Known about the structure:
The protein has 314 residues and is mainly beta.
Amino acid sequence: MKKLFLLNFYIxxxxxxxAQEKTTYYIKEQNRPVSNLDSADYIRTIANYKNNxxxxxxxxxxxxxxxxxxxxxxxxxxxxxxxxxxxxxxxxGNKQSVENYTKGKKNGISNYxxxxxxxxxxxxxxxxxxxxxxxxxxxxxxxxxxxxLDETSSGRFKIIDGNNEIEGEYLNGNKNxxxxxxxxxxxxxxxxxxxxxxxxxxxxxxxxxKEIEYNKLFVLxxxxxxxxxxxxxxxxxxxxxxxxxxxxxxxxxxxSFVVEKDGSLSEIKVLKGVSSEIDTExxxxxxxxxxxxxxxxxxxxxxxxYTLPISFQL
Length: 314
């Protein structure tokens, strides 16, 4: 009975179970935290103390306790800032990917595999002056092991990747020309045009034959007016709790939420808090936020999970 009481006591809104050595999160698809194991697709644990390399150990598990991902993070927050090699696994135990990170960005050679163990893609990542990930395809293959690109990383390919059939061309490792994708689940067709790796435009033909054209594949949700406007909103509405001010309590609250298709915010939770008073104030302010501009994928509004830090400093 005592153990059950302690377990229930430490389950917080952000689904964190604080132990002496690690923090545990229950997570659903799209990196969305949930409040209990039954609702989760997998589990993430992040060490509360640095290892001998000055990093925080990160482990992810499927619900049957088989390994999903192993890596190291520069921060012990809900969303890891990976550094070094990160290994991901399919449920059958085979490797899904071996990725290399520098300061939270993919950098260097990363390999991706089919569930049968054969190589799917070999990609060289770099980070440009805008701190954006840039990818250069080294090799792409089908599930039977057939390689499509030559020694210059050029050539046409056609593969089945999950629920999609994809075909296109790489020129010196860059996407070039028209990429055709058919989504078997949605019965939709996508045409995406590239020039030397740069996205030009795209078109979706849905199951009814309706066509939608667009110039960007994915657009993140934003506070209307941008970061500066959001900063003004926080400055105007945040009220430092009196008890926290008297106790000189300060810190950064990490919140997670979902930006819905209409721009409204839902599922607002504390991922990592400072104190009950400060956490409550952070939740209150985000709950009165005006609607955001929703994210889009292929010009269609989508739900997007978001993680946001709010600082309280005296």
